[in-house]
Design goal:
This protein has 166 residues and is mainly α. 78% of the residues lie in helices and 0% in strands. The longest helix has 26 residues. It starts with a helix and ends in a 15-residue tail after the last helix.
Length: 166
C-alpha cells in the first residue's frame, strides 16, 4: 500500500476526515490515477519502447558480443518493470531492494558500463518522447535512481523535458 494513504488512514483512526484531510486524500487519488495510467502505458508499449533501443545498440556496439547487448537490454527491461511498480507504489525502497542491490554488481562485474550508459540515454529519450511531461516526471526519479546505483555515477538532477525550454 502506498505510504501516503497509510499515513492518512492512521491519522483518521479516531475521527472522520477533516475537509483538508479529504482534499489531501482526493489529491492522492488523482496522483494514483496518473501513476496507474503511466504504469499501464509502460506495460502496453514495452516492445515499442525497447525495439528501437535494441536496434540502436546492435548498430552502435556491433563489435561487442551480442549476448552482452541482450543482457543490457534485459537489465533495463527489469529496471523499467520494477521502476514502474515502484512508481505506482510511490516507493523508492521497493525499487532499491527488489532490483538495484543485486543488479549493480552484475553490471560492474561484466564491464558493461559503456553499453548500459548508452542504453539509459536511449531509454530516457524514448520515454520523454512517448510520455507526457507529468507521466515522465513520475517515472524520472526511478530512472535516475537506477542510473546512479547501477552505473555508480551521479546524474544531473535537473529535469529537462524534450521539446521544452529550460
Amino acid at each position: 500500500m502506498q505510504t501516503d494513504f497509510e499515513k492518512l488512514f492512521y491519522e483518521a483512526e479516531d475521527h472522520y476526515l477533516t475537509p483538508s484531510e479529504m482534499a489531501n486524500f482526493k489529491n492522492q487519488v488523482n496522483v494514483l490515477r496518473e501513476r496507474l495510467e503511466t504504469y499501464k502505458l509502460l506495460r502496453d508499449r514495452e516492445i515499442a519502447i525497447f525495439q528501437p533501443i535494441a536496434d540502436n545498440l546492435v548498430e552502435t556496439f556491433s563489435e561487442k558480443n551480442p549476448q552482452l547487448l541482450e543482457r543490457a537490454i534485459k537489465h533495463w527491461l527489469c529496471v523499467m518493470r520494477y521502476g514502474a511498480m515502484a512508481m505506482l507504489l510511490n516507493n523508492p525502497d521497493y525499487f532499491q531492494h527488489r532490483l538495484l542491490e543485486w543488479l549493480t554488481n552484475v553490471i560492474q562485474a561484466h564491464e558493461m558500463v559503456d553499453i548500459e550508459k548508452h542504453l539509459y540515454e536511449l531509454l530516457e529519450n524514448s520515454l520523454q518522447k512517448m510520455l507526457d511531461k507529468n507521466k515522465f516526471k513520475l517515472l524520472k526519479p526511478f530512472l535516475t535512481q537506477a542510473y546512479e546505483a547501477l552505473l555508480d555515477q551521479p546524474i544531473n538532477k535537473q529535469l529537462v523535458i524534450v521539446g521544452e525550454d529550460a
